[in-house]
Specification:
Blueprint: H1 2-37, H2 45-52, H3 58-93, H4 105-118, H5 124-146, H6 155-179, H7 181-191, H8 200-227, H9 231-236, H10 241-263, H11 269-281, H12 285-309, H13 318-335
Length: 342
């Protein structure tokens, strides 16, 4: 009887995962609707809804189609990229606290973009490429840190090392702002994190890189799950850990670089999204990645909606709201006294 119950439990798990995915997708649809209907401006939710149906005043049409629509699309892509990147980093380092913003990956990308802005870069494709190079350098430093004896195996110490790197890069970014007042205003607005007022041309310049990142994830998901059993076990199953780490690093750089180019450095998104996904999917990275697809965009768009409403008629920077959401999650994980098994 016990084996039969175990088999039934295993058989029911995919259905539970599918149910969770559908619920997350439904919540995401609600957040998307809220993003289109609510804002800090004078357009009411009723007028915005009428504009979605083809009616309503002209200013509501403009706000929904030219401002909130592109903002919502950019938020969807940003949340997707950061959620998947966080799950990949945590699985690769076997550290549930690993997150692009905490480990310096986003800071490396942000510093690279600030440097490009200082030298007058305005082309969206160039900015995206520079952001990805900065993220790649940040990923390389993360991998190097995990190889340091006693550091990679201690999640809290690894986060402290990442915070040190992030602080250094932030200080360097501040120095760049002192060098050029014209660039300083643009850099200051950008590093706070925001998806407001971003053109769709910027989104189109990041989509090819994100598509490549998603393709790499599809390639490494199964080998990455095997690596959770240990590198020797993965080699025994015919996988190559070094090659897998390289592909993951490339995918994280593409995803984080694209997200940073779109919204600036947003911290904690890559921590919160996999944490929620693992709570329902368990330690299997493949199931976690599937759940990150709807949860990531929902977290970013939900935070963006809050940023519009908390201080209306003004708006809080999106990066501030994601920090307010993510900091308690980080403290909860650390204070729990145990780390989830990865």
């Amino acid at each position: 009887m016990v084996p039969n119950r175990a088999v039934a439990s295993r058989a029911s798990f995919p259905s539970r995962l599918l149910t969770t995915w559908l619920v997350a997708g439904f919540l995401l649809s609600l957040v998307v609707m809220a993003s289109l209907l609510y804002g800090a401006g004078p357009v009411s939710p009723g007028d915005a809804f009428a504009a979605l149906l083809g009616n309503g005043p002209d200013n509501a049409h403009f706000v929904v189609s030219e401002l909130r629509g592109p903002r919502t699309m950019i938020g969807l892509v940003t949340g997707l990229a950061l959620g998947l990147a966080g799950a990949l980093l945590q699985s690769m380092t076997r550290n549930p606290l690993a997150e692009p913003g905490l480990l310096g990956v986003s800071a490396g990308s942000g510093f690279a973009v600030a440097l490009a802005i200082l030298f007058g870069a305005s082309n969206a494709t160039l900015t995206t490429f520079v952001a990805q190079l900065g993220a790649l350098a940040g990923c390389a430093l993360v991998i190097a840190a995990t190889r340091v004896q006693g550091l990679g195996n201690d999640p809290v110490r690894l986060i402290l090392a990442g915070a040190t790197l992030s602080g250094l890069l932030l200080a360097l970014t501040s120095m760049l702002m002192l060098m050029d007042q014209r660039a300083a205003d643009e850099i200051r607005f950008w590093i706070t994190g925001s998806i407001a007022g971003k053109p769709l041309t910027l989104l189109s310049s990041t989509l090819p890189a994100i598509a490549v990142g998603l393709l790499i994830i599809a390639m490494v998901a199964r080998p990455l799950a095997a690596m959770a059993l240990g590198e020797k076990a993965a080699v025994g199953l015919g996988h190559h850990p070094g090659r897998i780490r390289f592909l993951i690093t490339l995918s994280v750089a593409l995803l984080v670089g694209s997200a940073t180019a779109l919204a600036g450095p947003l911290i904690f998104v890559g921590l919160v999204v996999p944490f929620i996904a693992r709570a329902f999917a368990g330690p299997d990275i493949r199931k976690t990645l599937w759940l990150c697809l709807p949860i990531g965009p929902a977290v970013v768009l939900g935070a963006d909606v809050l940023s519009r409403l908390i201080a209306a008629p003004s708006e809080l920077p999106l990066g501030v709201v994601t920090a307010l959401i993510g900091a308690p999650v980080l403290l909860a994980i650390v204070r729990a006294g145990r780390m989830p098994s990865l």
